[in-house]
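User: quick one, sequence for these tokens?
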């Protein structure tokens, strides 16, 4: 049973949330909007963006919500997204992003490569979060209490990581690529907090097993079949949305155990996830692959 019972008020908070068109992201967008935040949802389909925005507006007529288009598999589009967020905020005379939720994620049974030449699971699940966090740093630092919440997974456990082969793994195994990307989410969060003072805090979250379509979108074969059986045991996306809402709004996040949460409770991630040298190497490699100096 998760313990997110503390009342969270998000009025005055501006929240950017990727993957806001379905599953955990859509449930979180609704939760944020119902709690008074200004929500900027990000999705890769104009049509699904419109539908999601409309659905939220219908359910919560007072909601303040915008959606922006970006295919996070493209680094150009991640950078363009950050520019569009800046423009949108200027229009509203808002000068800070309080919370960035890196939630968008994929599972691909067969290897696909982005136009930047990078294996797509790693590109979307880790590099896009890394790059977007970098691009939004000035806005996050302008907040009194900036937060970066990255949706990771229990799947990060028992996963070896060869940093130099992440962008082009061979042989490709979908589950391993997914596990490595989720381990990268935690390594990123730990390394971020080592590099920055606590004005902006990064937290990685395991949402548990959740009943969404994630693995069916990237497979029409065995993974789809397995996932359709497995998701039946999953929780409603409203459960992790509650946890993301808590981490976004709670005044002081308890980081005495580290920067990993299983829903609203702090948890110790795997040994690999806590390795400083591995996190540093991943950070360097992520800079090389996104052509940034961070
Ligand atoms: N479900 C679980 O049991 C579970 C467990 C642990 C962790 N997670 C993590 O939870 C997060 C959310 O997953 P979910 O289960 O809610 O799955 P989901 O319903 O498929 O949601 C994924 C979201 O990411 C978006 N997305 C995918 N690729 C994108 C791209 N290239 N550019 C922009 N947006 C993109 C999807 O857009 P579309 O609507 O267009 O597809 C969707 O909004 C993921 O990071 C996943 O790894 C899930």
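Assistant:
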């Amino acid at each position: 049973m998760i313990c997110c019972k503390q009342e969270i008020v998000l009025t005055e908070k501006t929240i950017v949330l990727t993957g806001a068109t379905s599953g955990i992201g859509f449930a979180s967008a609704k939760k944020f909007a119902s709690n008074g935040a200004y929500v900027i949802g990000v999705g890769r389909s104009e049509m699904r963006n419109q539908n999601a925005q409309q659905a939220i507006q219908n359910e919560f007529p007072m909601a303040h919500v915008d959606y922006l288009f970006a295919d996070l598999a493209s680094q150009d589009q991640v950078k363009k997204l950050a520019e569009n967020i800046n423009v949108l905020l200027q229009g509203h005379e808002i000068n800070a992003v309080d919370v960035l939720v890196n939630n968008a994620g994929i599972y691909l049974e067969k290897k696909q490569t982005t136009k930047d030449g990078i294996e797509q699971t790693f590109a979307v699940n880790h590099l896009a979060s890394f790059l977007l966090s970098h691009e939004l740093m000035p806005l996050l630092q302008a907040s009194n209490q900036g937060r970066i919440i990255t949706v990771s997974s229990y799947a990060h456990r028992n996963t070896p990581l060869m940093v130099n082969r992440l962008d082009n793994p061979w042989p490709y195994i979908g589950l391993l690529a997914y596990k490595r990307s989720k381990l990268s989410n935690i390594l990123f969060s730990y390394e971020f907090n080592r590099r920055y003072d606590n004005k902006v805090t990064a937290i990685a979250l395991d949402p548990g097993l959740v009943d969404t379509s994630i693995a069916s979108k990237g497979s029409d074969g065995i993974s789809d079949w397995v996932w359709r059986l497995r998701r039946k045991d999953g929780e409603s996306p409203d459960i992790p949305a509650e946890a993301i809402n808590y981490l976004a709004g709670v005044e002081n996040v308890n980081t005495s155990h580290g920067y990993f949460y299983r829903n609203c409770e702090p948890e110790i991630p795997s040994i690999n996830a806590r390795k400083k040298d591995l996190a540093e190497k991943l950070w360097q490699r992520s800079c090389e692959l996104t052509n940034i100096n961070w």
